[in-house]
Design goal:
This protein is an all-beta fold. The chain is built from no helices and nine strands.
């Protein structure tokens, strides 16, 4: 198994406010560990940001399929500021799992995520 550290970045997100945009989708035959996620407000006013984990995999010893969950929801980010999404450790993504970003204003957050892909 190969471990590859990567950075995933997007200069402006989402294309439309209220419509979460995919930042990252875990490739096939891959497990991804999210190490860090930073969201910067690039607007001239405060914005709110939401980060979702979209998962249809199953695991953790339970029979039920995973669902979409919020890592943060409508968190205010002041002008000229950034937030680090509190992961409380690491976040594991399985094949097809996605990280989505939304913002109260279109194209007004810049996002950087550090990951390790295990293939």
């Amino acid at each position: 198994m190969a471990n590859t550290f990567k950075v995933v970045s997007h200069d402006v997100m989402p294309a439309s406010a209220g419509s979460p945009e995919d930042l990252y989708t875990t490739p096939s035959s891959t497990t991804t560990v999210v190490i860090g996620l930073v969201i910067a407000n690039i607007h001239t006013a405060q914005v709110t940001a939401t980060v979702k984990l979209v998962s249809d995999t199953s695991g953790g010893g339970r029979a039920a399929t995973n669902t979409t969950t919020h890592l943060i929801k409508a968190v205010p980010i002041p002008v000229g500021s950034s937030i680090e999404v509190p992961l409380g450790g690491k976040l594991v993504l399985e094949t097809t799992d996605k990280i989505q970003i939304d913002c109260s204003v279109a194209d007004k957050v810049s996002v950087t995520m550090s990951i390790m892909e295990i293939t």
